[in-house]
Amino acid sequence: MSATTTALPTGTWNVDPTHSHVTFSVRHIGISKVRGEFGSYEGQLVIGEDGTASASGSVDVDSVSTKDENRDGHLKSADFFDVENHPKITFQSTSITAVDEDTFDITGDLTILGTTKPITLKAELGGTETDPFGNERVGLDITGEISRGDFGMKFNMALGSGNLAVSDKVRLDLDISAVKAA
C-alpha cells in the first residue's frame, strides 16, 4: 500500500467483469496487430481512509480469446502461456502515484509463467457515477507494455523478410468499471 492523493472515495472497489475488458495486442509478422482478450478475471482497488491505495488482480489464462480457436490453443500451450502449469496471471501493486488529478502510475509485481517482474501501468480516471441500481462505480483506463521474453515466453519464428512472427512487446489495455463494496 502506498500513500497517494486520489479523487476516488475511500473504500474497496471490485472490478465488474460484465462492464470491463482486459485486452492485449501484439505485432504479427511485423506488419499488423493481433488483439486478444481474457474473459475471466477479477480485480480490486482499495482506497484507505489514511490515503493509502492498492490494486490487485488475476486473470484466468484459459479464458484467452483472439477469435481464432487454433491460435488460442497455441497460446494456451507451453509455447506461450502454458495454461496447464500456470493457469493464472497475477498483479499486486507496490505503489500508486498521482501524476495529476485524474492520472496515476500504478507500479507493481506482474507474474506470468511463474516469473514475477515489476511493471508500471498508466491509469486514467474516467470518473465516478451511481448506476441505475444505486451502485457507486468508478471507471479507469489502464495501459502498459511488457516484454513477453522477460517472462520466459520466447516462442517465435523468423520470416524470410527478417521480421519475426510475433513481436516481443505486448501492449496491455484494461477498460475497468469497478463497483464500491458495501
Mean pLDDT: 91
The CATH architecture classification is Beta Barrel
Strand order of the largest sheet: 2-5-6-8-9-10-11-12
Number of strands: 12
User: Would you tell me the structural class of the helices and strands?
Assistant: mainly beta
Overall shape: elongated
CATH superfamily heading: Lipid/polyisoprenoid-binding, YceI-like
Total number of helical segments? Answer: 1
Provide the gyration radius in Å.
17 Å
Biggest sheet overview: 8 strands, antiparallel, barrel
Strand content: over 45%
Distance N to C terminus: 21 Å
Helix content: under 10%
CATH domain class: Mainly Beta
Sketch the topology as an H/E string, one letter per element: EEEEEEEHEEEEE
Q: Number of folding domains?
A: 1
**Low-confidence sequence ranges:** 1-6
Description of the structure:
By secondary structure, the chain is mainly beta. The chain has one domain (2-180): Lipocalin, CATH 2.40.128.110. Helices cover 4% and strands 57% of the residues. The protein contains one helix and twelve strands; from the N terminus they run βββββββαβββββ. It has one helix at residues 69-76; strands at residues 2-3, 11-15, 21-28, 32-38, 41-47, 52-60, 64-65, 88-98, 103-112, 115-130, 136-147, 166-180. It has an eight-stranded antiparallel beta barrel with strand order 2-5-6-8-9-10-11-12. The protein is elongated and about 55 Å long.
